[in-house]
Amino acid sequence: MPHQNSKSLARPKKRQEILRIGKWLLGLAALLVVTGCGSWHVVDAPLGSYVESTSPSMLRLTLVDSSEVRVRRPTMSPDSIRGTTLEGRAALQDVAYFEAFQSNPGGTFGMVVAIPLVLYMIAGARCGC
After folding, report:
1. Chain segment 69-92, per-residue pLDDT in tens
2. Reported pTM
3. Are residues 29 and 47 in the same domain?
4. Which of 27, 48, 61, 102 is the most buried (most CB within 10 A)?
5. Burial class (CB in 10 A: 0-12, 13-18, 19+), 112
6. Cβ atoms 107, 19 nearer than 8 A
7. Domain count, the chain
C-alpha cells in the first residue's frame, strides 16, 4: 500500500472548500440575476399607446388622489387599464402619470461579476488556494 503524505490528504479538503464556496457564489449570482438592478422611470407617452407598443410586464400608476396601483401584464380597455393586480383596474381618467420598471443590465452585470469575484478572492486567500 503506497504511503500518502499529509499534503495529498489536504488537497481534497481544499477542493471541497472551493466547491462549497463556488456553489455559494453561483447561488448569489443567480439571485442577483433574478432580482436584477433596476428602477421605476416616468414614461412621457400616452398610456394606451405605450402599453400596446411595448407590452410592459409591470406598470406603476399614480392616480390623481396620489394613491398608487401596480399592474402586472397590463391590457387596455376603452376607459380603463387592467392587469394582474390586487387592486383590479384603474380608470384612465384617474391616472395622473405612470412609470415603467426598467432594468439596468450594466449594474446587474457589475454586481454579478464584481461581488462574487471579490468574495472568491477573499475565500481563496483564506484557504490558501
Report:
1. 888 889 898 888 988 876 667 889
2. 0.55
3. no
4. 61
5. buried
6. no
7. 2
